[in-house]
Sequence to fold (369 residues):
Amino acid sequence: MRQHNFLRSHFRQHRGSAPQIVFPGERVRLNGIGFQHVNLREHRRRRHVPEAKLVAVAGRDLARTKQFASQLDVEHAFTSLEALLDCKGVEAIIVATPTELHAPAVIRCAAAGKHVFCEKPLALTLEESDKAIAAVKRSGIVLHIALNRRFDPPYVEARRRILAGDIGTPAVFRSISRDRELAPIEYYNTGSGPLFVDMGIHDFDVARWLTMDEVAEVHAFGGNVVAPELAKFGDTDAGLANLRFEKGAIGNIELFRQARYGYDIYTEVVGTDGALRIGELRHTAVTILKQDGISHDAVDGFPNRYRQAFLDELAAFVRTVREGSASLVTGEDSRRALAIALAADKSRREHRAALLSETSGASAARGKA
Fold:
């Protein structure tokens, strides 16, 4: 596993700890590997899932991993996935390594019979996704992909309303994802995939989830006005993707890495009988009114925006392990969102519309910007 340094701001995080899950009378015991992009506050919140206990973490640098474990009051710290898998009593692993290492880790966990909670996406290629999905099916383990918007209360309520027919049949989908600040430049060389994969995967996933339809065609564009240095990684700081769905609906997704004013997540679905909007830039319901103007605060990053979703998605995973029920977010869900992301990146690079059928076997490897 490639070594990565802590990153500043809300990117100053380790990825992945493996929690152990415990059953009635006990808590599910989890272990985690990798923790580069997972915020420490997020892990501390996840400890409050009462049915689970995080008992070990693993990272390449033992000293830093021990420090991380100490901050979370975790008993064991290791330097390999193998050590986590050998840890006595562990039932499940949280995989939060760089994205390019997700699928290999899932395959090894499946072979060891350990359930897996895996950060998004499952892989950077459809081929690697298929290998991991096949390994999960052979082993019979639970695989949950952390596409957390499916557990965010506003998105959950929006889907409930759409299923109830409150807005009729979805006809137009729109989503905006704007980070507050760029990550440090070294982040973009960690194997996380280009903008449409690394950041857009959430938007492409909820596009499917809220419309209950599949994307057939993508026409995407990218820009490098804010961070032209990203071109050397074959990446962009901004992206737009126009979507055509199989049942006739259309959509648009905007991605931007440096909005400055806050962490802005917004989704709208327009149907035949109405529309709904998801998202609120304001963090607290306080507005300041003064002679020189009116102001309010803004959400500063994903740890605060999705604090409840992070708890709820892990609790859902623990529940499926305890009950032996089906995963709520599967490897196939990740694969389908990845296929849209790959089609968008292909469209951006080749300056043309791309059909989803063209992305079969495609990868998110860095291309020419």
